[in-house]
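Data deposition worksheet. Section B asks for the primary sequence of the deposited chain exactly as it was used as input, without tags or linkers unless they were present during the calculation. Section C holds the resulting structure in token form. Section D is free text for depositor observations; keep each observation to a single sentence. Incomplete worksheets are returned to the depositor.
Section A, Depositor: J.P.
Section B:
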Amino acid sequence: MTSVASPRARLRAVTRAFDAPSDLLDARGPDGFAWLHDGAGLVTSGVAARVAVDDVDAALGAIDVDDPLDWPGTGALAVGALAFDPASPGSLVIPSTVVGRTADGRGWVTEVGPPAHLRVPAPAATRPTRWRIDRDADEQRWRTMVHQALTAIDAHELEKVVLARTVVVEADAPFPVSALLARLRDAQPGCFVHHAEGLLGASPELLVRRVGQRVESRPLAGTARARVGAVTALQDSVKDSREHRLVVDGVLEALTPVCDELHAASEPDAVTFSSIVHLETPVHGHLADPAASALDLMRRLHP
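Section C:
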């Protein structure tokens, strides 16, 4: 592992146009990061440096960048997942190789540190044939959780609660990450498919995007199964509309201090994905000088 704290370990990032593979997942390292959305995205392999979250902006700024393309996602970048515990310092990875593709099909590769060759895809892993599923909440326990949440809301202790349960799947062989990502990508069109250090999923929600001085967020809240009449029922639901507005207000509150312009529609739209419908309110703004970094914006909104 390379430390960017030492002058002798100064890193260089070189980005060039590259004929990316038809399936970006073929270029992902065994423990690499993945971010895929509607044909565009990037995957990584190798670790040039692991950096504490508080030091990421400085570490990236210290890298010598050779990037004639200057496309979103090219050059030096850090990837990973932030901890849900605010007290956990956390870290992000500056990958040694990034392979990406833009929405219009242009490919690139970025290499950081000593020259490196792209990873040769490993042979297909053995896939599970048997598995067992365990849940930590039966129907009665779930009803109890709902009752406790409603009691807390009635007492004005909380405004919104998102209940969750754990489902554990144990198989007779490891689940191939690339196969899971490919299945999510195919089954959840329009979603952001991602993998970082064991955290894997597909989300329709865009937490934050920064391009130059422009900032965008796409909060989603208020959900219904995709079926006939679901859009109208969701838009007419007082409960879902209020739940959605709480999220939008939270995004506006977090971004207002760093923007000189910030706009959100007064009423949400309903957007349909493979099996569900969400209420959505796009938020767009212009960052005030000096512009907050993408990491700073993310930390204002997460979790």
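Section D:
The longest strand covers residues 12-17.
The chain is about 20% helix and 30% strand.
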